[in-house]
Amino acid sequence: ILARDVHNQIVIRGLNTIPLFVQLLYSPIENIQRVAAGVLCELAQDKEAAESVEAEGATAPLTELLHSRNEGVATYAAAVLFRMSEDKPQDYKKRLSVELTSSLFRTEPMAWNESADLGLDIGAQGEPLSYRPD
């Protein structure tokens, strides 16, 4: 909640806390993982902050957290990864879309088909995944 306010985001980034929040992703406590991923998700709305999150090595722990049993942790992790991918090539975005979809819909195996085209629009601003009707 603290990181939702733009002024607070500037203060948080200015205090060089991104490395701390990235390290908290490794915590064995799900609630700490969720809060850390949530803060990083809010900060990553800014392109420069998203680049900082990636530069601090957040990709590996966030990818692991996609498989968390805690839906909030997995969703925040997916959102941060999506926001970090916004300036990446389209083929990277497509692979990420498949990974995010398979992780987030793991309890619904029939939710995706063999071609991996799920009607997900990876280019939407602000939302990690949006549905485009075929």
From TrEMBL:
Pfam families: Arm. Coiled coil: none annotated. It comes from the Eukaryota. ARM repeats lie at residues 16-58. GO terms for molecular function: cadherin binding. GO terms for biological process: cell adhesion. GO terms for cellular component: cell-cell junction; membrane. Belongs to the beta-catenin family. This is Catenin (Cadherin-associated protein), beta 1, 88kDa. It comes from Gloydius blomhoffii (Mamushi).
